Amino acid sequence: MSADQEHEGHPHDAIAGVPVRLEAAELRELSRLQPARALLATALEWLGIAAAVALVSWRPGVVVYLLAVVFIGARQHALTVLGHDASHHRYLNHKLGNDLVASVFLMWPMFVSVWGFRSFHGDHHKYLGGVRDGNRLLWRTHTGRGELRPEWVYPKTRGELVRELARRAAFATGLRWIVRGLIGSLMLREPGPWRVARLGCYAAAIAVLSVGGWWLEYVGLWLVPMCTWHVTIQYMRLIAEHSAVHSDDPAYQATRTTIPTRLEALLILPRNIGYHIEHHWYPSVPFYKLPALHARLMREPGFRRNADISTSILRSMILVTKR
Length: 323
Description:
The chain is mostly helical. The chain has helices spanning 24-31, 35-58, 62-87, 95-107, 114-126, 135-138, 158-168, 172-183, 185-188, 192-212, 215-242, 262-267, 276-281, 290-297, 301-306, 313-319, and strands spanning 156-157, 256-258, 308-310, 321-322. It has one domain (3-322).
């Protein structure tokens, strides 16, 4: 089955179905891949990272460095968002090329496996909210008894939310993500030959960093952004997506859409990742078509009436809190 045919029966479609079913021709057009747009987005994210590194080198200082940490951390989030599309086979038309390019330029630099993430995330889509939901394993949202862990119980007080965000930004969570990606379940789910290729890429990167004497720069301008801002906004996104969703219709109570402001899209929710109801209902639609899908669904009275749609990530954070 080709990538552009998968919209007719995408392997990550929800088992329970969706409340609004689009016509096949309409969905086919929305699901049509434009690889040049995905590749351009990838290039722009890496150019942004390079520009931030160059700025810190040109104008060193605390303020410039902190701004670079935030900007690079957001670009790292954008790389994983694009890699997320690849996990749904929505990045490039050719399946091998989809996984290869996404691995080298999107996921491996973030210590994540396309295959490992796909194995969890596909089940998250298919069994959303159920015992087989992949997020229960990937993000450890539930205990062995099926109860939500405290960090995923919402609504929280605003103070509790701030403390949770601060804990995520304190580096340790990011280090755990790196270890899990290197030696944990994400890597173990990667096919053997690709695991070897991944280790080869890491070995080459280590050699380059060592020969160039760039380890301090790598820690300060890659690991610090990853383990602080990137981890924090990932958590913000996750709780905005599925926590304390407000709707009177049970079919809409599992997911919230957050449409960020332009600044929020740059620094917190990049590459249309906030269109989450739309993405869950139609995982065949690539990231650059999600605004069009949203506009189409907004023509449906039931969607307009029942969907929990926030117009800012900060508003979403308020929605998941209580006074």
